[in-house]
Design a protein that fits this description.
Layout: H1 15-55, H2 61-70, H3 72-110, E1 116-118, H4 127-130, H5 151-164, H6 174-186, E2 194-198, H7 207-212, E3 217-222, H8 225-237, E4 243-246, E5 259-265, H9 273-286, E6 287-297, H10 306-310, H11 313-318, H12 324-329, H13 332-338, E7 346-352, H14 354-358, E8 372-379
Parallel strand pairs: 1-4, 2-3, 2-5, 3-4, 5-6
Antiparallel strand pairs: 6-8, 7-8
Helix pairs in contact: 1-3, 1-5, 3-5, 3-8, 5-8
Length: about 375
């Protein structure tokens, strides 16, 4: 589905740019639905038995990925996928460069229209975000080039739908909406006063918490000033009262026991071993007694087949996400326990996607696992 939001702060493509964006989206779909399944057939029919015999045991995800990379079909898949990622950024950069000043002025005019924004000019960008251009985006998502720049946030909004192939809905808010609604149904007496979304980027998964819990004060934090500016302007145009703050999730300015619910979406695997533990410890500090912590990411390797785990090798080796393989290999239940959450309060669920299942989207045409979102967390008590 083509992603064309109605809010003015979204950078508008011209005809040719829009056509090239559609090409990237369609090619991504073809790679996911046509070529990727053939890799599995190749492995199961021709490679698996030989690899097992040579090792004398069941191969792990790293060994499977290495073998797939050595095959012609695997080389084609890795190359085409990487090229399409770079093409996506190259094409959309044309739009961003042309529109950046204009949309930044629009954002400035919307400031304070609803909700709030608080920036921190002294904040330091962590090394794990500076060493590599995350997701292969030149400059990452924190770089800014003039006062009031929102282009990194706008670029994220522009490209996320191409990457997701439209599977997260018209406002790319299906993960937040599906998870928030699941929380409300699972904890029927839960009435959170304060909610915090960590690593909120442009707030696309933050806004649904205000929709599902309208009486709550909802906060979204991110380390990127351009993303926070864009998130605030976007929320103002969507008439949603969110408090956006530029903060590092490892240690925030909020007082202890301030939040009833702390969430994140695809944040944890973008950090580091040290930062990950700091973030979970910070969640514990921030939560009230009986408060709930929910983190959504892809499922841990222990919950999926070694072959399915091997498919994430592209993200780790080609898409500048070096911590991904380490993160998915650890026990989150043990990590949360080590940080002070009781093991019997551990949460682990696959939450059905409202949008993907409601629109019968083919499972291969989405980066989500079987049209669901995997969450882990704990109740503090």
């Amino acid at each position: 589905m083509k992603y064309v939001p109605k809010y003015k702060v979204f950078p508008k493509s011209n005809h040719d740019e829009s056509s090239r964006e559609s090409f990237c989206r369609v090619l991504g779909g073809k790679l996911a639905s046509n070529l990727r399944p053939k890799l599995k057939t190749l492995y199961e029919k021709k490679l698996q038995e030989k690899l097992f015999s040579s090792l004398g045991r069941e191969p792990n995800h790293k060994e499977i990925a290495k073998l797939i990379r050595s095959q012609l079909e695997g080389k084609i898949w890795y190359r085409l996928r990487t090229d399409n990622q770079d093409r996506m950024y190259s094409i959309t950069f044309d739009t961003i460069l042309r529109e950046s000043r204009n949309i930044s002025q629009i954002a400035l005019k919307t400031k304070g229209g609803i909700g709030s924004i608080k920036l921190n000019s002294k904040i330091k960008i962590p090394s794990y975000l500076k060493k590599l251009d995350i997701h292969r985006r030149p400059g990452g998502y924190h770089s800014q080039y003039f006062d009031g720049d929102i282009s990194a946030g706008a670029h994220y909004d522009k490209t996320i739908s191409i990457h997701n192939m439209g599977s997260h809905g018209l406002n790319n808010d299906d993960p937040g909406k599906s998870i928030a609604l699941w929380i409300k149904k699972k904890y029927q007496n839960f009435k959170p006063k304060n909610i915090l979304d960590l690593g909120c980027t442009i707030g696309n998964n933050t806004l649904p918490y205000k929709e599902i819990f309208p009486q709550s004060n909802v906060f979204g934090i991110d380390i990127s000033a351009p993303c926070i500016r864009y998130a605030h302007a976007r929320a103002c145009e969507l008439n949603t009262d969110i408090n956006f703050v530029q903060e590092n999730a490892e240690r925030t300015f909020f007082p202890s026991q301030y939040f009833d619910l702390v969430t994140s979406r695809i944040l944890l695997h973008e950090t580091s071993s040290k930062a990950l533990k700091n973030i979970i410890l910070e969640c514990k500090r921030l939560l009230k007694p009986n408060g709930i912590m929910i983190h959504s990411d892809a499922p841990q390797f222990e919950l999926i087949s070694n072959y399915d785990a091997s498919l994430r090798d592209w993200d780790a080796t080609c898409n500048n996400e070096p911590f991904m393989a380490t993160f998915y290999s650890i026990s989150l239940k043990k990590l949360y326990s080590d940080c002070g959450f009781k093991q019997e309060k551990y949460i682990q669920e696959f939450i059905p996607s409202i949008y993907m299942n409601g629109n019968k989207i083919e499972e291969n045409l989405t980066p989500s696992f079987r049209n669901s979102y995997f969450v882990t967390g704990a109740v503090l008590g």
